[in-house]
């Protein structure tokens, strides 16, 4: 079994790391604009939950291990990462088409959460009201369009790097047998 050449794997891994942190940063930007509406925090859970894992596995397996099960695991991690990238793209497009969509209960989306009042009474402050207000940086909901579009682009680029990695592995192991 031939492994993906280390320089190529390193370049792909570096691109995947940059895209991972871009996804996380863009989702944080999106959340800061409106914490409840127009987000499922997909950039965070896709980025932190799986993109980092698959990128690290790909880099370590290709550069540090002998070709074996480790290489196959790396390819499987990239396949699963493509699925997460597709989820990120689809969720971002859904919210691009409906910026005010809220997947949380209506009282949370409207900023009238009962929990907010309970926290304020318990702490004797108005802290919870600021947490449960819809906008942290006080931007109009239409300002979510740019980070959501960039999330779609980052997800597409992540999927492309995963597919390139998988393609290189397939070409080296299935088509180039000597």
UniProtKB/TrEMBL annotation:
Entry's transmembrane regions:
7-29, 41-63, 75-96, 150-171
Transmembrane as a keyword?
yes
Q: Which UniProt keywords apply?
A: Membrane, Transmembrane, Transmembrane helix
The protein's name is Uncharacterized protein
State the organism of origin. Didymodactylos carnosus
């Amino acid at each position: 079994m031939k492994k993906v050449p280390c320089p190529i794997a390193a370049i792909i891994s570096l691109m995947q790391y940059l895209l991972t942190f871009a996804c996380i940063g863009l989702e944080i930007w999106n959340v800061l604009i409106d914490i409840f509406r127009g987000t499922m925090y997909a950039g965070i859970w896709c980025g932190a939950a799986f993109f980092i894992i698959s990128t690290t596995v790909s880099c370590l397996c290709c550069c540090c291990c002998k070709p074996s099960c480790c290489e196959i695991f790396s390819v499987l991690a990239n396949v699963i990462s493509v699925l997460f990238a597709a989820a990120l793209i689809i969720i971002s497009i859904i919210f691009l088409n409906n910026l005010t969509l809220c997947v949380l209960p209506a009282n949370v989306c409207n900023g009238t959460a009962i929990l907010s009042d309970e926290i304020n009474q318990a702490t004797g402050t108005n802290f919870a009201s600021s947490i449960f207000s819809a906008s942290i940086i006080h931007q109009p909901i239409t300002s979510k369009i740019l980070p959501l579009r960039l999330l779609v682009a980052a997800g597409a680029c992540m999927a492309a790097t995963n597919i390139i990695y998988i393609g290189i592995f397939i070409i080296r192991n299935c088509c180039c047998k000597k």
